[in-house]
Amino acid sequence: MDTESLVIRDVSLTYEQVPVIQNLSLALKPQELGCLLGPSGCGKSTLLRAIAGFQPLNSGEIWLDDHLLASPSHATPPESRGVGMVFQDIALFPHLSVAENIAFGLGDWPLETRQARVDELLHLIGLSGMESRYPHELSGGQQQRIALARAMAPKPKLLLLDEPFSGLDTELRGRLASEVRTILKSDGICSLLVTHDQREAFDFADRIAVIHEGHICQFDTPYQLYHEPHSPFVAHFVGPGEMVDAVVEGPRSVSSPLGVLSNDQDLAFAPGTPVNLFLRPDDLIHDDDSTYQATLVGKHFRGAHHLYEVRLDNGVVLGCFAPSHHNHAIGERIGVKLDVEHLVVFPAR
Ligand code: ADP
Ligand code: MG
C-alpha cells in the first residue's frame, strides 16, 4: 500500500459561516512536493492555516504521518505539529546574523548538533561563508533562502510555503522555485506550496492541485494538467490555449476547421457529438506547405521562435509557434497545420 504523509480528508472551512473550502480532500506522499494552485481569494492560505493549526475545521480531518492534527473536536497545538512555514513577507530577524536566524528554532538542540545543522543548511542553500552577515546585507533572493533554511532547520515533517516568491521579480521567482525544489528534495522534506502562478507551480511541484471556488478541480503532475486537463477551467488556468468547434467523427477522431485529427486513445464522446477542441500554441505549427491557411494577426518574438497569433476563417484566433527566421508580416496569409497526438475535448458549450 502506498503510504501517505499529509492527509486532508473532507475538510470544510468557513469565516463567520461563509464557506471558503468545502469537503476538500488531498494526500501527499512522504517527500512529495505538492502545490495548491488557484486564483487569488480561492482559499489557499486558509487551508494552509488550517494545516498549521491557526484555523479551526468545520468538518473533516487533517493527518500527518498517522497523527491526527485536527478535526472539529481536536486541534494539536501549532508548535506540536511538526509543521514549518515560510511566508511571502520575509520575516528574518534584522538584529540576528544569518547563522542566528537559521538556528532560531533550535534553542534546545546541543550546541554542536545545532552548529552542524546550520552549516549543512547553509551549504544546501548555497550560502556557505555568509553566516556572519545580517539580513540587510543580503539580496531578496538570498533572504528568502535564509527564511527557507530557518523553517527547515528543526526538520519539520511538513513544510508549508505560502506564496514565498511573490515579492521577488519574475526571473528570480522562476529560478528560486526550482532551486527550492532541489533543496527540499535533497533534504527529503514533504512540502506544500501555495501559489497563483502556474509557472512557479510547474517549477516546484511533483503534483499540483488546481483549486477553484473552494474545491480541487484536478490533482495531477504538471504534464498531465497541461496536456490532459479534465475541465476547461484547468485547461485555461495552467497555460494559454483556445477552444475551436469540432465534431467527433469516429472512436478516435474529430473533424476540426484544420482537418481531421486522430487521438492516441478512444474518445469519451460518441461519433456525431459536437465538441470543443482545446488547442495550445504548441499544437499548431506554421508550415508554408500546409493546405490550411490563416491570417497572421499578432506576432511576439520569443528568441528561439515567434509566437504568432493567427485568425482562422471561422474567426477563432489561435496561438502558433514558428521558427524565428520565418518572419511573416501581420495581415499575411500563412500556412498552418495541427500537430497533436492527444486531443483535449470537452462537451460543446
Ligand atoms: P487565497 O490565499 O487563495 O488568496 P484566502 O484563503 O486568503 O485566499 O481567502 C479566501 C477567502 O476568505 C477570501 O474570499 C477572503 O476574502 C476570505 N478571508 C480570508 N481571511 C479572512 C478572515 N480573517 N475573515 C473573513 N474572511 C476572510
Ligand atoms: Mg493567500
Give an overview of the whole structure.
With 349 residues, this protein is of the alpha+beta class. 22% of the residues lie in helices and 36% in strands. The protein contains eight helices and 21 strands. The strands form four sheets. A six-stranded mixed β-sheet has the order 7-8-9-3-10-11, with helices on both faces. The protein has a five-stranded antiparallel β-sheet with strand order 2-1-4-5-6, with helices on one face. It starts with 5 loop residues before the first strand and ends with a strand. The model has no long low-confidence stretch (mean pLDDT 93). Residues 15, 20, 38, 40-46 line the site of adenosine-5'-diphosphate.
Name the shape in a single word. Answer: globular
Calculate the mean pLDDT score and round it.
93
From the helix content, strand content and strand pairing, which structural class follows? alpha+beta
Beta-strand content: 35-45%
Helix content: 10-25%
Radius of gyration: 24 Å
Can you give me a brief rundown of this structure?
The chain is α+β, with helices and mostly antiparallel strands and 349 residues long.
Defining key terms:
349 residues, alpha+beta, 5-stranded antiparallel sheet, globular, binds adenosine-5'-diphosphate, binds magnesium ion
Blueprint of the fold:
Layout: E1 6-15, E2 18-28, E3 33-37, H1 44-52, E4 59-64, E5 67-71, E6 74-75, E7 83-86, H2 98-102, H3 111-124, H4 140-152, E8 158-162, H5 170-187, E9 190-195, H6 198-204, E10 207-212, E11 215-220, H7 222-227, H8 232-237, E12 242-250, E13 253-256, E14 259-262, E15 274-279, E16 284-286, E17 293-301, E18 305-311, E19 317-323, E20 333-338, E21 344-347
Parallel strand pairs: 3-9, 3-10, 7-8, 8-9
Antiparallel strand pairs: 1-2, 1-4, 4-5, 5-6, 10-11, 12-13, 12-15, 13-14, 15-21, 16-20, 17-18, 17-20, 18-19
Helix pairs in contact: 5-6
The chain binds adenosine-5'-diphosphate and magnesium ion.
